[in-house]
From TrEMBL:
One of its GO terms (molecular function) is protein serine/threonine kinase activity. Residues 100-295 form the Serine/threonine-protein kinase ATR-like M-HEAT region domain. One of its GO terms (biological process) is telomere maintenance. InterPro entries: ATR-like_M-HEAT, DDR_Repair_Kinase. Its main location: nucleus. Keywords: DNA damage, Kinase, Nucleus, Serine/threonine-protein kinase, Transferase. Its EC number is 2.7.11.1. PANTHER family: ATAXIA TELANGIECTASIA MUTATED ATM -RELATED, SERINE_THREONINE-PROTEIN KINASE ATR. This is non-specific serine/threonine protein kinase. It is found in: Nucleus. It comes from Neovison vison (American mink).
């Protein structure tokens, strides 16, 4: 199921298509805000160039991608084939920024937290193409958190594929800060804190779901390579690729295993995602071989 519909990475034309559609939505949504619209225009311009997406005589990937867009979208995209927008984004010195960012000065409302965290994570992406794509979109994230939400799951995958132990620990700390957001804090402060908590938790869930799907897809691909239909001279090369793929798979699954199932269950319950809460609670009981009687208090919360 996942291997058919799942966008494996930034090279996937479905990823490019989805992202350009999302940026087209943002571009139209900001007709009355020239700075935001220019930021969307810049990202569109850069992506069309990166993917070589345009009308061509030859039927290459760029041409095929271009033909996937409905005509009314192509009409919006076409002028951006010849624009000359430059990014005026100032680079942030992240070393001086407090981590976790959640609930810090840069993370006390959802739009700011998500854009700041995404911006920081992008600096940790080692994959050249992914880094280029995320960076040209980062200028738009300050204006439209829907673009941020759209990209964060993909950004996280690429961070985990190339990061060191320290980076991984920072990602873990940020996610745990969101999942363990204290209820008392939310109740005692204004509604905006509650919104921050809800939206941030949902965003973290979608990121973890994406990692799970990515790992499942990678596992299926690795299994398919293990039992190929035919042998060829490329076996040696394939085994090198498989080793790198397996290490990628390990990086993601190890990270997922770090997030405690009981923490996910409580956070799901707090977000009123009851089906998800039960799923994580069941995983917790099975994983820890816990006696369900000891945890009935959680179910009665």
């Amino acid at each position: 199921f996942f291997s058919f519909f799942f966008e494996t990475g930034v090279e996937d034309s479905s990823f490019a298509f989805g992202l350009l559609m999302e940026l087209t939505r943002a571009y139209l949504a900001y007709a009355d805000n020239s700075r935001a619209q220019d930021s969307a225009a810049y990202a569109i311009q850069e992506l069309l160039s990166i993917y070589d997406c345009r009308e061509m005589q030859t039927d290459g990937p760029g041409h095929q991608l271009w033909r996937r867009f409905p005509e009314h979208v192509r009409e919006i995209l076409e002028p951006h084939l010849n624009t000359r927008y430059k990014s005026s984004q100032k680079s942030t010195d992240w070393s001086g920024v407090k981590k976790p960012i959640y609930l810090s000065k840069l993370g006390n409302n959802f739009a700011e937290w998500s854009a700041s965290w995404a911006g920081y994570l992008i600096t940790k992406v080692r994959h050249d193409l992914a880094s280029k794509i995320f960076t040209c979109c980062s200028i738009m994230m300050k204006h439209d958190f829907k673009v941020t939400i759209y990209l964060l799951p993909h950004i996280l995958v690429y961070v985990l594929l190339g990061c060191n132990q320290e980076d991984q620990q920072e990602v873990y700390a940020e996610i745990m800060a969101v999942l363990k957001h204290d209820d008392q804090y939310t109740i005692s402060t204004q509604d905006s804190a509650s919104d921050l908590c809800q939206l941030s938790t949902q965003t973290v869930f979608s990121m973890l779901d994406h990692l799970t799907q990515w790992a499942r897809h990678k596992f299926q691909a690795l299994n398919a390579e293990k039992f190929p239909q035919s042998k060829s001279n490329r076996d040696k090369l394939d085994s090198i690729v498989s080793t790198a793929d397996y290490e990628d798979y390990q990086s993601v699954t190890r990270f997922l295993d770090l997030i405690p199932q009981d923490t996910l269950a409580v956070a799901s319950f707090r977000s009123k995602a009851y089906t998800r809460a039960v799923m994580h609670f069941e995983s917790f009981i099975t994983e820890k071989k816990q006696n369900i009687q000891e945890h009935l208090g959680f179910l009665q919360v």
